[in-house]
Amino acid sequence: MDPEGSCTEDDPHVKLMMEGSTLRKVKSRFWKKQRHFRLLEDGLTIWYKSGWAGKGHSKFSVSDLEAVREGHQSEVLLSIAEEFPAELCFTLVFHGRQGNLDLVAETPDEAQAWIQGVRKLIHKAQNMDEQGRQDQWVRDWFLKADKNKDGKMNFKEVKTLLKMMNVDMNEDHALRLFTMADKSETGYLEIEQFVHFYKILTQRDEVWKVFQDYSGDGEILTLEELECFLRVEQQEGELNCHRAEEIIQRYGTLESAGNQSAMTMDGFQAYLCSLDGSIFKPELLELHQDMTQPLSHYFISSSHNTYLLENQLTGLSSLEGYIQALKRGCRCVEVDSWDGDDGEPVVYHGHTLTKKILFKDVILTLRDYAFKVSEFPVIVSLENHCCLEQQTVMANHLLQILGDMLLTAPLDGQIPERLPSPQQLRGKILLKAKKSGGLETRLDENLPDEASDEEEVADGDPESPTLKDPQAEKENKKSKLSRELSDLVVYCKNVRFQGFEQARSNAKCYEISSFSESKAKRLSKEAGDEFVRYNSQQLSRTYPSGMRTDSSNYNPQDMWSTGCQIVALNFQTAGLEMDLNDGFFRQNGSCGFILKPDFMRDANSRFSPEKPEERPGYNPLRLSIQVISGQQLPKVNMKEGSIVDPLVRVEIFGVPVDQVKAETSHINNNGFNPVWNQTLNFIIHVPELALVRFVVEDFDKTTKNDFIGQFTLPFTCIQPGYRHIHLLSKDGTPIPPSSLFVNISISELA
């Protein structure tokens, strides 16, 4: 079942993990408690005793882990560095927004065993093929169902298992499946018999029907039959001959008498469940766009108040906010700087109870993490509230810590007529801040400031931040701008927006304005075409209303539809808006830059999101989605006997006329293999800007439906045909093997 399992279990580090260790779990300088940790027999689950008396314990899967950091590589472990040396410390980093686990071992050897052991297990989990994942899934269910841990399951344990798996099956049918699998007639299923039971349970009639439609003998698909399927159903065109050979080689071959490759039903299902059979075009997941155009021609993944992990009033400020945002492909982070004690500037949400972190630590974090996921530039949006002296301290930190990574002068020494490209700026960090004068002149720092980032831009806007002390802000306005800090601003000089007419006649390409969400929406509605033209030349940044003290988000699609590049979101808050952001930026190698459609890069564009039908080249498309079935949906209510009643909703996000949704009916008591066979139809007016979100919910007639899973992608990245959609959790992390099976058709309007 697990060909790699034995070699991993024989590894001395993994063996020690299985024997168990007493490690200190550290939450703060004052909370350090010993816990017994061990790796369970499945080689995948880490179990540890909780602090409560009696039987309390917690566990998590290795597949939940993204990495292991060695030494004092977290704020918590740095705070206890004098008490515990680096060779005893390590941090387990989880996928998504889950907090890290900071641990301290008794000896350096024990720390190394856990560090190396966990890394090997993460590597193994990440490199499993689809069959390996399925085997692991089966093995997990066997271990969950085998309550008395005797290595076999009786019928009572199987019935419990079916409930756990979200299956509501009558007892007679369950007994029939059990008897079919119990070939030795012992009344028990051992592991191999359980595999057979699982295979019967997961037979996919809806996939078998598609297979039968193209198989001449009902047993195999020949190369020609698979070519026909790829051409007719998957719309793969002229490449289908080569593709068919490739797919047969990859997912399951059968040598027939004539020595001709063919595909079995199992191979066909494996292909449909794979990346090749996924709804997202695999080639568009790779870096494929032209990266040589001006920065203003790209949408840029951007974070608001990056330092916050929670709400805007009392939330925790942390360097982890920057690490997590950069790991998600973010290319514009925000730094809110204020005067600190001992002459060291601090970062926090001013005039609130949020915790403070040192500015220099933020810059060290940027140095270490800016280019781990993407080589393209990072913009640091500095909201500067510091006195002259501490501004100079900030400038020195930026220069000394970042060195050559910091862009401090125009690339070719010339005053630019247009912004440089992401390609030209690879590996560079750009400062977005106030600047005295322009690139053309070097002015004395005593001249009046330019507009600051959010405070002044939002003057008069009822949604501007209201938590800040007006007197303190007034004083801040009078403060001077440090020459040293001003000189570090090159291509992103903050200026106040003074109207489209003024921008047309006077704006410099390196000037950038910020807009509150309400102001950006108003401009979009009143002068959408002008906003699009403006954004073809200038960078714009939008940010959430100051009233969103809970760190909620606005719909980024409203801003992208007018060409705004830097649409700043609270990355720490999971939900619809971050689903859209993650789905949009998943394309192009998740590099954080997406090239705008050509009609948004043209300075003479006539495109308006409010009137898309008036643009030249208007070509709406019909999208038809047959929602066929779901597979192994997770339970949302852990109450025993609770089974989900799933429905699927498809939501379109784009220009206003494209904001529509439709849903299937719900299926009673079946989260394991629900079948809908319902078709949802849409007209997409601006395909280039549309996002499609698939949401699965647990229907409840008395209260709000519970979220089960979702997947969001750009309309332009959809593969037509029979496709699987691999669902993500609310946090944006995979929940294998949960999926939807759909048949998608895209056509021109007749």
From TrEMBL:
Catalytic reaction equation(s): a 1,2-diacyl-sn-glycero-3-phospho-(1D-myo-inositol) + H2O = 1D-myo-inositol 1-phosphate + a 1,2-diacyl-sn-glycerol + H(+); a 1,2-diacyl-sn-glycero-3-phospho-(1D-myo-inositol-4,5-bisphosphate) + H2O = 1D-myo-inositol 1,4,5-trisphosphate + a 1,2-diacyl-sn-glycerol + H(+)
Superkingdom, taxonomy of origin: Eukaryota
Bias (Basic and acidic residues): 470-480
PI-PLC Y-box domain: residues covered: 485-601
Disordered: annotated span: 441-480
Residues carrying sugar: 184, 186
Cofactor note as given: Binds 3 Ca(2+) ions per subunit. Two of the Ca(2+) ions are bound to the C2 domain.
Example of a GO MF term: phosphatidylinositol phospholipase C activity
Gene Ontology CC annotations of this record: endoplasmic reticulum; nucleus; plasma membrane
Active site: 304, 349
Residue ranges of domain C2 in the record: 601-729
Residues that bind substrate: 432, 434, 514, 541
UniProt subcellular location: Cytoplasm; Endoplasmic reticulum; Membrane; Nucleus
Protein name: Phosphoinositide phospholipase C
